[in-house]
Amino acid sequence: MAVAASSMHALAMNTDHPAADFSDTPWWLSLIKAVLLFVILLLNTLLVIWFERRVIGRMQQRPGPNRAGPFGLLQTLADGVKLALKEDVTPKNADKLMFIAAPIIAGAMAFVAFAIIPLSGSVWMFGHHTPLQLTDTPVAVLLVLAVAGVGVYGIVLAGWSSGSTYPLLGGLRSSAQVISYEIAMGLALVAVFLYAGSMSTSQIVLAQKGIWYCIPAFFSFIVYIITMVGETNRLPFDLAEGEGELTGGFHTEYSSLKFAMFFLGEYVNMFTVSALATTLFLGGWQAPPGIAAIGGGMFNGGWWGLLWFFIKLWLFMFFFVWLRGSLPRVRYDQFMRLGWKVLIPTTLVWVVAVAFIRAAQLGFLGDSKAWGGIPRATLIVIAVIAVIVLAIAWVWDTKQARKDNEVTAPPDEVNPFAGGHPVPPLPGQRLVEPVPAIAAAPAARSSVDNHSEEPRG
């Protein structure tokens, strides 16, 4: 931990990547940007629902929505109007205050988290130079994690306040899932903080001018991709809404606009985690390296940044849709095991390795020594050993998981009445010839009758 702290301190002293400058941004311009951000997220949500239906339709060899409007583009709008006009039912046993507050919390928190995402660099807007970002703080990324944690309250309250068993189970399952994967997600982001020397999103984007962090922090990128799918309750990790187990999960009892708020919050959350991945690992609004070098960077920044940002963002949205159309839902215990026993421990080892690597790269105490007087070569060896331990632990855990999931072969012979209830045999099994209880009872009765009749004879 001392290595990580020293690395962060040394990188924080780097002033080559200043934070976004909001000094020329009056309050009314911030208000306009907030409204535009809200509208952009709403329009993108309408578009991504249509996009998801069309893409999965093509994957399943069917057309998808193609009746309402050109190419079916108005289908999502029609569904939204239908939800608004449906009857709003509140269960008799529900806690009405919490029942109403839960969807508001879940929906509002999804929008708040997007406020620190830089859509581009500074642009000229209404007579002022302002960043295309609503706000930024020195710990902006932690703000996203904090807001996501508050959003869990909406899920828990929705399940508890419904006054029904299945929503309560769905709320508990979903909250456990989100909290578990937030831990791994937060650990995955530590490597980015070590490389950038800041938690400010604008500074992290500018720090990736040379190389995007998806390359040096590749393992963190992979872990983040897995955790962002688990965080948003999307297939194959939509376990809180397992229809065969929990009917509809925590929002089973919701209808009309309250259900629409949960639906909207889920899709806005998809955009939030995708935008965060774009910002932290794919250079944010910066153009790809080849294009960024054209014309002295004329296509890199300004209003051009919006184009590159949304291209990267929609690549992640396609990834979400592709997963939903390709993979089946996993088992809940397997999913939780992946988070607690694989992702969290291995990410901890990875963070330690990155801390030693960054300490060796920075060379705090001169050319030959790095951190605490330890030679750079020693730090690199320690980092390599940590990565090897990571690989061995991963392989061992995978083998252990396969061993635990091995299915023993069914016996060749089976007694259908062994458990007290008739059970049909599996293919390839032979029935034992037991004395069924139903057949044994008349035989025993007749035997008693015969013995009782002998004295009378």
Automatic annotation (TrEMBL):
Single GO MF annotation: oxidoreductase activity, acting on NAD(P)H, quinone or similar compound as acceptor
InterPro entries: NADH_UbQ_OxRdtase_su1/FPO, NADH_UbQ_OxRdtase_su1_CS
UniProt GO BP: aerobic respiration
Membrane topology, record value: Multi-pass membrane protein
EC number: 7.1.1.-
The reaction(s) this protein catalyses: a quinone + NADH + 5 H(+)(in) = a quinol + NAD(+) + 4 H(+)(out)
Gene Ontology, cellular component aspect: plasma membrane
Chain ranges passing through the membrane: 27-51, 97-119, 139-158, 179-198, 210-229, 259-282, 302-323, 335-357, 377-396
Top EC group: translocase
Main location: membrane
Positions of region (Disordered): 406-425
Compartment(s) where it occurs, according to its Swiss-Prot or TrEMBL record: Cell membrane; Membrane
ATP-binding as UniProt keyword: no
Keywords (A to Z) from UniProt: Cell membrane, Membrane, NAD, Oxidoreductase, Quinone, Translocase, Transmembrane, Transmembrane helix, Ubiquinone
Family of this protein: Belongs to the complex I subunit 1 family.
Subunit field text: NDH-1 is composed of 14 different subunits. Subunits NuoA, H, J, K, L, M, N constitute the membrane sector of the complex.
Function according to Swiss-Prot or TrEMBL: NDH-1 shuttles electrons from NADH, via FMN and iron-sulfur (Fe-S) centers, to quinones in the respiratory chain. The immediate electron acceptor for the enzyme in this species is believed to be ubiquinone. Couples the redox reaction to proton translocation (for every two electrons transferred, four hydrogen ions are translocated across the cytoplasmic membrane), and thus conserves the redox energy in a proton gradient. This subunit may bind ubiquinone.
Protein name: NADH-quinone oxidoreductase subunit H
Organism of derivation: Leekyejoonella antrihumi
This protein's encoding gene: nuoH
